[in-house]
Amino acid sequence: MKFNKKILMISATTLMLVNPVASLANANTISAASVKKVSYAKQTTVTVKKKTPQLFMATGGRALTTGKYYKKGQKLTVDQLGGMNILANSSPDAYHIKGTDYYVWAKDVKAKRALQDIDYTSRGLTTVRTNKSKAPLYSFYAEKSIPAGYAFMKGTDFKVNGAMYLYNAKTDKSELYYHLTNHYHTMANLKTSPDFPNRFNTELVDTGDAFVKASDVNFFSGKKLKPINTAASAKDGSKIAILENQEADLKDLLGKVDSVKNSVKYKLSSSLKRDNYDLAVRDAQTQVNSRKLMSTAEAQYLIWSLKTYESELDGAKVKVGNMNKLTSNEKLAIGLLVISVYGKNTDKESLYGYAKFNKGNDKTFTLTIEDMHNQNKVVSTKTMKTSDFAQKR
């Protein structure tokens, strides 16, 4: 396995996060009876307090304006409230207008009922944080699989997309694990970090398809994950051959791969999400093509992995008012989408793709891809159709 040679020296003290709970230690005591329980509505009506811009959400939760406005006194039905990215230290709240792709700033409207505040960019995601240094990773068989010579720091955050019990045949024990969403993680290089964990050099490492033990992390944010199995079923399933319905499910999921890859949701998803789906397909295909008899536990995991990573594909075209005359914000939204689709950062390469529109022609743009590991050397340039990335509202 080759590792990224780009090294960053970090002091452990710079990674310490302020715990807001600790600040309550000196605060006045609040009785439970004095805290009023808020009842959140699924949707409500808001009234516009002053003329305010109509917003749409670009890649990365970026808030952009459409060029249109809502008038004072106008009533809108909204069904979500959450922070939007404005490239600042704060993420001001905006309401999502039901049945549309538009939003309105919360500060500019008065709501009839309260909606629960969410984070638009991280909704549906779960993050856990390591509670010790050198927390190991594990394979599906509950065996340690962390790359030699590398370690995670205490307080490392992992995006996880599943919770499940894994059975270790050597110890005859089933324990709860979280499945890591991505395959690349920043780790300390122990060979070049003799003072670990006080100071350390980090590298981006390909950790492969991996799990972290639930006891080695604390829940940090997002939705709570419910295990897809039990400790008993993990053990029993490892000793039972794949079932007929599981064989059928795997066949169907692998049979639709070409269709998925030809879809907009795949093509316009970030390179990271496409790679995650591709690796899930590769692992399932490898297992199916091998002569080894698959267990029900293995089949359950492969089916879960294929379905999960397909569901995480979220590519979509930017919706615009006039395909032949794009606004500056519509071009910006297309540019942000292009960066997400063509940007790639692994242990082997770091690519950056961007779009440039030519004056007087909005039907096409030039896609340029640069290698950031090689002094931003241009890897390729290509003329792209705007209609492959945008569509009329």
Number of strands: 24
Count structural domains.
4
Helix content: 10-25%
- Describe the main β-sheet briefly: 8 strands, mixed
Strand content: 35-45%
Rounded mean pLDDT is 88
Gyration radius, in Å: 24 Å
Structural class: alpha+beta
Q: Given the C-alpha coordinates, what overall shape results?
A: globular
Query: What's the total helix number?
Result: 7
Distance between the termini: 46 Å
Q: Which stretches are low in confidence, meaning pLDDT under 50 for 5 or more residues running?
A: 1-35
Protein name: Serine protease
Keywords: Signal
Signal peptide: 1-27
Organism: Lactobacillus amylovorus subsp. animalium
Explain what this protein looks like in three dimensions.
The chain has 393 residues and is an alpha+beta fold. The protein folds into 4 domains: 8-21 and 124-231, no CATH class; 44-115, SH3 type barrels, CATH 2.30.30; 240-311, Four Helix Bundle (Hemerythrin (Met), subunit A) (Up-down Bundle); 318-392, no CATH class. 20% of the residues lie in helices and 35% in strands. It has helices spanning 231-237, 244-255, 257-261, 264-267, 271-289, 296-311, 328-342; strands at 8-11, 44-48, 52-58, 62-70, 75-83, 93-97, 102-105, 109-111, 117-119, 126-130, 137-138, 150-151, 157-168, 173-180, 184-189, 199-206, 211-213, 217-222, 318-320, 344-345, 350-358, 361-371, 377-385, 390-392. The strands form 5 sheets. Strands 2, 3, 4, 5, 6, 7, 8 and 9 form an 8-stranded mixed β-sheet that branches. A 6-stranded antiparallel β-sheet has the order 11-17-14-13-10-18. It has a 4-stranded antiparallel β-sheet with strand order 1-16-15-12, with no helix packed on it. A hairpin with a 5-residue loop joins β22 (361-371) and β23. Keywords: Signal. This is Serine protease. It comes from Lactobacillus amylovorus subsp. animalium. Residues 1-27 form the signal peptide.
